[in-house]
Design goal:
The complex is a heterotrimer of chains A (355), B (247) and C (74).
Chain A lengths: L3 E4 H11 L4 E4 L6 H10 L6 E4 L3 H13 L4 E5 L1 H6 L1 H9 L5 E8 L5 E4 L4 H5 L10 E3 L4 H18 L3 E6 H5 L1 E4 L26 E2 L6 H21 L3 E4 L6 E4 L2 H16 L4 E6 L1 E3 L3 H7 L5 E6 L5 H8 L6 E5 L8 H11 L1 H5 L2
Parallel strand pairs in A: 2-3, 2-4, 4-5, 5-8, 7-8, 12-13, 12-15, 15-16
Antiparallel strand pairs in A: 1-9, 5-6, 7-14, 11-13
Helix pairs in contact in A: 1-2, 1-7, 3-5, 10-13
Chain B lengths: L1 E4 L18 H14 L6 E5 L14 E4 L5 H11 L4 E7 H7 L1 H9 L5 E6 L29 H4 L5 H6 L4 E8 L3 H19 L4 E7 L3 H4 L3 H15 L3 E5 L4
Parallel strand pairs in B: 2-3, 2-4, 4-5, 5-7, 6-7
Antiparallel strand pairs in B: 6-8
Helix pairs in contact in B: 1-7, 3-4
Chain C lengths: L3 E5 L9 H5 L5 E3 L11 E3 L10 H5 L5 E5 L5
The chains are: A alpha/beta (355), B alpha/beta (247), C alpha+beta (74).
């Protein structure tokens, strides 16, 4: 199979084109800009359309319209731009429209910095805009996984009629790694008979989230809640690394999972029985992965580029059955594997002493 | 006797929820009749605003999407780019279009987006109960300009059709009113022209319709029509402000 | 003999009286009894003078009016 050496952002864009994405609406923002540049350059060749929107607010609403018309559509941005998209995402979730959104996260809050960050975790996994809804959030940690998960994202969006976010950062977006574009098995996806395409030959379709009747409002919420539960049951994804005999567990996703993996390897050389659980879906959070290990784990270390956000989900997933500690850097800074291991030994001195 | 006027089939049977005398209903009819006469019911997709017309999906016998406040031109852009051979229009009020959604409409016009925007201007926020709009006239009393709109504090009204007419991508811009039978006929013609231009692929078309809000203006429906004539029509000039094909 | 006739859908009518005012022949007025929604609906009070000009229908905000007119030549 042919290998390509691609930058992460370009890999996302090419994977989207290969997944049948024919419409892209975006607004430039570092460090995600290569995605919209790639789409501007490559969509016309496949009879696709790229529109540079006047703002992220407009870009996400263009996605709303196109998804409502039944076409595969994507946008990409970085943290401040994603904040501007929250209104649209709430409407997209409420109208159950399949839209894929890429967030190449940068350090915040405010204008922040361009460095890698995972500080948008709460925003991505807890809804983000107004109302009670969820995005499916995918967190790749290699360029190959950026490709695979981007292709999956379109299927998941269509299958569940739900917005899907691919969350990475500037390191993954700028990193070059070899990738292959595998033939994928076609998933059975429901027909988009709800789309507004002109009512010729069928009853008219309307896409709206507005109701002044509270009874209807509650019925909608219950329907969405049931959908989110079914997604949570069926779509949790995670990777376990050196967990078979692990007494301790590092938890990390995306960029920090790469670092934590190196830290686990260093610890193992010292004889410390620590493994890694890498969430691939941030929502639904891979609770089942934690459950399968719960009896054997004496302590967890959540490695994050934030003040500690995923750590709350780790505590919930483990019912606080063992101590959960944080190892973090912020504002665009990244810990070295040595730093992670040092922090691990600091919070779990018994682990090192047991060797 | 021959039936010469009946309710268009492009409107559903649902009774309008608008207040008595609100001229949204007239404008709905004009849009619907044009859709029917141009045989567009099977290929039209309408985009609705937030505001009094936010429920108008119930009334048009076509596919429709409900946009977030002010975003209808962006949503319509997404639909039109996805399905370029369909007919796409937005129906928006003055708060939706001229305030929170001014970027969306200006840039849809600038792109020459091949859609039509029907802009209903009644110089007030109706749905939220009569607050100042970007098109509220100087001196006009609203619940957030209770002493009358004072330009030194609250600035001046925006004349949207004049602004849109300056944009190169706009192919047709008209300013009409529904205060009288004659002007209603003119309004219908302007909407027809805009729709035909979209069908011909000429670019962005915009019809501003001066409308009433008897409830929040605090007048009878008949008085509101008079007030519209005497005040709004003096501030917002009627006519075809741009016709790229004629130029 | 009337040249035209007006039928107001009394369930749709909200009694705004725009049609009553706009009618050049003054053939319409409002009912004394309200419709089920509580509105005093418009009705044809002087049917003989209706010309079927349809100005009332053009101005009706609730699209509640139908008009018939004598075919020309009759």
């Amino acid at each position: 199979m042919k290998k390509y050496l691609l930058k992460g952002n370009e890999a996302i864009a090419e994977a989207a084109v290969r997944a049948g994405c024919r419409l892209f609406f975006g607004y430039p923002i570092t460090p995600s800009t290569e995605i919209i540049e790639y789409m501007a350059k490559h969509l016309p060749a496949v009879n696709g359309t790229f529109v540079q929107a006047e703002s992220e607010v407009s870009a996400i609403n263009m996605c709303f319209g196109a998804a409502g018309a039944g076409v595969r559509v994507m946008t990409a941005s970085s943290s401040p731009g994603i904040s501007l998209m929250q209104e649209g995402l709430s409407y997209i979730a409420a109208n159950e429209l399949p839209v894929v959104v890429v967030n190449i996260v940068r350090a915040g809050p405010g204008l922040g910095g361009l460095g890698p960050s995972q500080a948008d975790y709460f925003q991505a996994t807890k809804g983000g805009g107004h109302g009670d809804y969820r995005l499916i959030v995918l967190a790749p940690s290699t360029v190959q996984e950026l490709v695979n998960l981007t292709q999956d994202a379109f299927d998941l969006a269509d299958l569940y009629r739900n917005p899907v976010m691919i969350m990475a950062d500037g390191i993954l977006g700028q990193m070059m790694e070899p990738v292959v574009f595998q033939e994928r098995e076609t998933r059975q996806l429901p027909a988009k008979d709800w789309a507004t395409t002109g009512a010729e030959g069928r009853p008219r379709n309307t896409i709206t989230s507005y109701s002044l009747q509270n009874e209807i409002g509650e019925a909608n919420c219950l329907r969405w809640e049931a959908k989110y539960r079914s997604i949570a049951a069926a779509e949790q994804r995670w990777e376990q690394y050196m967990t078979d005999d692990a007494a301790y567990l590092m938890v990390a996703y995306g960029t920090t999972a790469r670092i934590a993996k190196a830290a686990v390897q260093m610890a193992r050389k010292e004889g410390i029985k620590v493994g890694l659980l890498r969430p691939i879906t941030l929502w639904p959070f891979p609770v089942d992965g934690f459950k399968s290990l719960q009896g054997q784990i004496k302590g967890y270390l959540s490695v994050e580029l934030s003040a500690g956000q995923m750590i709350e989900d780790v505590r919930l997933a483990t019912n606080c059955s063992a101590p959960v500690h944080l190892c973090n850097r912020q504002g665009g800074m990244v810990p070295a594997p040595e730093e992670v291991l040092e922090r691990f030994k600091e919070v779990f001195p018994a682990a090192a002493a047991a060797v | 006797m021959k039936e010469v006027f009946k309710r268009t089939g492009a409107l559903t049977d649902a009774p309008f929820h608008y207040c008595p005398g609100c001229t949204h209903g007239i404008i709905h009819r004009l849009v619907a009749e044009n859709l029917e006469e141009l045989n567009l019911l099977g290929k039209a997709i309408g985009v609705t605003p937030v505001g009094c017309a936010g429920f108008c999906q119930q009334y048009f016998n076509i596919d429709m999407q409900g946009a977030a406040h002010g975003r209808a031109p962006a949503v319509a852009t997404g639909i039109k780019r996805a399905l370029p051979d369909r007919f796409v229009f937005t129906y928006q009020g003055d708060g939706d279009l001229a305030s929170i959604g001014i970027a969306e409409v200006m840039h849809a016009a600038a792109r020459g987006e091949n859609i039509t925007t029907i802009f209903v201007n009644n110089a007030i926020y109706g749905m939220t109960g009569g607050q100042m709009a970007p098109t509220t006239l100087p001196g006009q009393k609203t619940s957030t300009s209770p002493f009358g709109r004072e330009p030194s504090v609250a600035g001046y009204p925006l004349d949207m059709p004049k602004i849109i007419a300056q944009i190169q991508g706009a192919a047709y811009v008209a300013s009409v009113s529904v205060d009288s039978p004659k002007n209603v006929l003119q309004a219908k013609k302007a909407i027809r022209q805009a729709f035909e231009y979209q069908l011909a692929g000429r670019g962005f078309t915009f019809v501003s319709v001066l409308s009433t809000c008897p409830t929040n203006w605090g007048m009878s429906p008949v008085k509101a029509l008079e007030w519209l004539r005497e005040n709004m029509m003096k501030n917002y000039t009627l006519g075809v402000l741009k016709d790229a094909a004629a130029q | 003999m009337a040249k035209g006739t007006v039928e107001v859908d009394k369930l749709r009518c909200k009694g705004c009286s725009i049609c009553v005012e706009v009618c050049p022949q003054k053939v319409l007025n409002l009912s004394k009894e309200p419709n089920p929604k509580g509105y005093y609906y418009a009705r044809q009070a002087d049917p003989d003078n209706c010309t079927g000009c349809a100005m009332c229908a053009l101005m009706c905000p609730d699209v509640a009016i139908r008009i018939w007119r004598q075919a020309s030549g009759n």
